[in-house]
Amino acid sequence: GFISIDCGYTANQTYTDSRTGISYASDEGYTDAGLIHPVDKGNLQTDLADRYLNLRFFPSGERNCYTLRSLTPGGKYLVRAAFGYGDYDKLNKNPTFDLYFGVNYWTTVTIVSSSTAYVFEIIAVCPADFLQICLVNKGSGTPFISGLDLRSLTSDLYLEANVTQSLVLLSFFRDTVGFGPNRYHFGTNYQHIRFPDDPYDRMWQRYENVDGWTDVPNKSNGEIKNSTNDNYDAPSAVMRSASIPVNDSRMDLSWSSDSSMNVGVDPKFFLVLYFAELEAVQELRQFDVSVDNNPLASAFSPKFLLPTVLSGIVQGSNEHSISLVATSNSALQPLISAMEIYMLRPVNESTTDSLDANAMMTIQEKFSVKKNWVGDPCAPISFAWNGLNCSYTPNSPRITALNMSSSGLVGEIDASFGQLTLLQHLDLSHNSLSGSIPDFLGQVPALKSLDLSSNNLSGSIPWSLLEKTQRGLLTLRVDDNPGLCGNNTCNPIQKKRRNKTKLLQIVISVVVSVSLLVLAVFLLVI
After folding, report:
1. In the chain, how many domains are there?
2. Which residue in 66, 80, 444, 462 has a CA-CA distance of 20 to 30 Å to 20?
3. Element at 464 (helix H, strand E)
4. Which range is most confident: 61-75, 180-194, 227-241?
């Protein structure tokens, strides 16, 4: 599946992009934060997509997020975020802010030129049935975003992207093609290749012009097919042309990171090189491939109309070189069809347990809680929601305490509170909660304290809560609820017991205590 969002576009409206046929929707429903703003087309580079003519910016809050739902837990996705500043705020101040894939750092967005469109991509595994893409304010300008895309990938693609690490596509500015991701095709086709030619909507741009190189088209007109065990699946539109040196036996390419993104200290890169022989040659084409003078492949020969991939990890520094050098046995020049360069980004943080996270997001939406309740409830720790205590086990964080006292809650107690199965302490006091106290609160196995005081609750207290209180397992506060068991006709709800004894009356004042319940039972016996 595809999710294609035009950030800041007219609410509840969609349109179809004329170049790709992809349908784009507004970001309404994906985030409830930020403000929208148009961008003057004259302040942007020419020939940009319509999505850059508006944006959403986030003037308040340290972390603001988009939530993408109905995903596959453990599924692999390509996510692309696009940014076109265009001096929309008339401040002429290029911002810098961080981008997160869920709870894990993705990259730092540094706007170097206000007229340039910046695109960042990540290939990663989604741990739950939803994903949050978050922008984090670093105090260096207001975060904003122009577009957000999600593309589903099959599990056998890019095996290097897994639960322990993600692939962040490197970005770079080249004089002949401008700023763009380091995903290149070589040859006669100057076209920017993406969907529908690439079914995964990867964006391929032509590598810069190099003196002394020429292009090799697919003169045979034969179909280029990927093998069944191809873990990268480059589209035929990319593989149907290549570049070779004209009067030389070697090709040299260089690559580095761009100032628009932070690669960190001692970065680790993942390089993917694609090759395919496009002519039914009778002579030998054979060459050595090295990266930073370290061999990647020796005596390599591309296969006719069949893509072959060479890949490897490159570590350290920001400047790197790739050399393709013909062997002494080769009668033909080296050749290259396509290239991708990624950063390996470790997955250091675990997301909050999915059931806990879904419960908290439902609570946040139902009661319209603001505070800092955006993104993952527990992670990273520095962004944990106010009022939560979380246990950070080796696995996913779990919510153990929730304090929503004096939070302006209105309405009935939502069933989502009962889904927090490791919750020990719940404080809902000093709100305007109404209706009865639900029995599911007594079914929360770890609950030790429950404060419902100073609300508008009515009816009787469920037996499940009274029984836990009687056994000394729960401290319960329900005072200052005028309609709650406030007269002699209010009877608690109880389970059927063998002796069929019915409690006739329980007077609740400030705390429902063990001693009071024991006394009540004693009076019944008398």
Report:
1. 3
2. 66
3. helix 463-470
4. 61-75
